[in-house]
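quick q for whoever's on today - can somebody do inverse folding on this one?? i tried earlier but teh output was garbage lol. tokens:
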């Protein structure tokens, strides 16, 4: 039977909390033209799902 694991990371102090908030404030870049572009996170998620379906364990090939 498969196991499930939940890992939760919490900041240790105020400095860590500020760092996390700064990272969250970075906008998700849009790839492509403004009218038809898509968020980078959406594109990477789809590529990871495709890699998993193809048996590559979610590895995303990067362009050279």
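ok took a stab at it. sequence:
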């Amino acid at each position: 039977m498969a196991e499930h694991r939940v890992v939760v990371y919490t900041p240790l102090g105020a400095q860590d909390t500020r760092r996390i908030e700064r990272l969250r404030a970075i906008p998700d870049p849009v790839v492509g033209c403004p009218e038809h572009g898509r968020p980078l996170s959406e594109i990477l998620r789809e590529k990871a799902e495709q890699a998993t379906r193809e048996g590559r364990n979610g590895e995303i090939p990067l362009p050279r």
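fwiw The chain has two helices and two strands. also The first strand starts at residue 30 and ends at 31. so keep that in mind when u check it
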